[in-house]
Inverse folding.
């Protein structure tokens, strides 16, 4: 089997497990919906002056996406440790492949969150997006980077004490350049300005994070 | 290292004296505030150097699994944080004089604060793992991963948005915007702070090794 086929098999295994319990999906989507409802309730479509809306909405959009993702994405490797399947996975597959499969699953989970948050913002907050294609690209590249970094850090913190708190402490400074750039790109997409500069930065970040995670996966995942 | 220590004392004293006495204050800055460049930028440089040294020794640890390399990497991160905090304090002093506020969330200021958080997380990660070998391995992996993403925090993200920060050293023109005396003292300070870092690194790493050997005995 090729690398891609085996990574897809790991992703399918995680998806099957998740479909049985639906713990991560429900927790993540519930968090996203609650945060969205809270935002809509407190500022609504008319709670802000028209000129103040775009930067605040762009920042809130990514804050909700990040924290919703942070409730589900770190579970990638923690679940294997809790169910006692980590050793079997370690013995049968290389770390880089496990990481790729789990990052793929996490990316799917991120897209599910985005599928709730984006329409929610459009309907509840009267979010005006001038360049939808640019926004889609920012969400895709931002979400990919967030998934790769979260999956990698999940492998590092899976066996540490206080791992939930530790994950946020470790992840936040690492993903902040990505979040700042994604907010900048989202703002450009809503205003119809040039989103290519933040997109290029996001693509570079994604490439650097993917390469580093791939090269370090064996050391991160070994027993 | 003893020779370095004996050399550094008069050398750094001379750099400090020159920083206050030789170059004229730069134009466009309030009063003597431009002299902070002789301390603020070398602190930032030394902090970045320390994190790069930590990454290099982390790689060495992953290749050789020698605890001495992990001790050097950990010592370098601690010193990088020390110089990083000094960078924030000196930057804040400058901001209070130039912009009338100690902290104004300028992108360059904020990115440096986040860099400090990034490496503080390295120490949290170490503290959360009990087994020494696993602690060293996970810390080394994190230090290398952080080193790859660090340029986005320090060099890229702050430049995506507008900044008030002076661009005398790293700027789009690719030139160091300083006169000759300022440049001489500035590079003298960079060399002096780098030497100070090497001396402190040697002390900190040797202390960590003694602690490890003491635990084993």
């Amino acid at each position: 089997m090729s690398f891609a086929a085996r990574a897809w098999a790991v992703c399918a295994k995680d998806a099957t497990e998740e479909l049985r319990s639906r713990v991560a999906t429900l927790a993540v989507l519930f968090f996203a919906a609650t945060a969205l409802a809270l935002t809509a309730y407190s500022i609504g479509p008319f709670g802000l002056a028209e000129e103040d809306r775009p930067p605040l909405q762009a920042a809130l959009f990514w804050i909700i996406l990040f924290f919703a993702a942070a409730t589900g994405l770190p579970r990638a490797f923690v679940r294997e440790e809790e169910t006692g399947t980590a050793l079997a996975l370690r013995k049968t597959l290389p770390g880089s492949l496990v990481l790729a499969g789990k990052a793929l699953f996490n990316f799917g989970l991120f897209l599910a969150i985005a599928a709730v948050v984006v329409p929610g913002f459009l309907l509840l907050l009267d979010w005006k997006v001038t360049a939808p294609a640019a926004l889609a690209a920012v969400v895709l590249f931002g979400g990919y980077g967030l998934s790769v970094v979260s999956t990698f850090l999940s492998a590092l913190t899976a066996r540490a004490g206080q791992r939930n708190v530790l994950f946020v402490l470790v992840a936040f400074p690492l993903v902040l350049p990505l979040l700042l750039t994604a907010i900048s790109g989202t703002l450009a997409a809503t205003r119809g300005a040039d989103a290519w500069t933040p997109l290029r930065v996001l693509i570079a970040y994604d490439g650097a994070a993917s390469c580093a995670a791939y090269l370090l996966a064996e050391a991160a995942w070994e027993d | 290292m003893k020779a370095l220590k004996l050399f550094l004392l008069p050398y750094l004293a001379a750099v400090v004296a020159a920083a206050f006495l030789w170059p004229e204050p730069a134009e466009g800055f309030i009063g003597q505030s431009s002299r902070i460049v002789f301390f603020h930028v070398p602190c930032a440089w030394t902090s970045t150097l320390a994190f790069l040294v930590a990454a290099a020794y982390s790689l060495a640890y992953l290749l050789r699994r020698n605890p001495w390399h992990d001790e050097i990497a950990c010592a370098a991160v601690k010193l990088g944080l020390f110089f990083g905090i000094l960078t924030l304090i000196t930057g804040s002093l400058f901001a209070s004089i130039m912009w009338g506020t100690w902290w104004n969330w300028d992108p360059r200021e904020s990115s440096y604060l986040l860099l400090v958080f990034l490496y503080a997380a390295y120490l949290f990660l170490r503290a959360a793992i009990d087994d020494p070998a696993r602690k060293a391995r996970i810390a080394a992996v994190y230090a290398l991963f952080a080193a790859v993403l660090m340029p986005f925090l320090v060099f890229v993200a702050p430049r995506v948005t507008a900044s008030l920060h002076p661009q005398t050293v790293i700027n789009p023109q690719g030139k160091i915007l300083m006169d000759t005396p300022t440049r001489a003292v500035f590079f003298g300070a960079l060399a002096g702070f780098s030497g100070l870092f090497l001396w402190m690194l040697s002390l900190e790493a040797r202390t960590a090794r003694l602690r490890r050997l003491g635990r084993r005995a």
User: Anything to note?
Assistant: The CA atoms of residues 19 and 185 of chain B lie 6 Å apart. Residues 37-216 of chain B form one domain. The two ends of chain B are 27 Å apart (CA to CA).
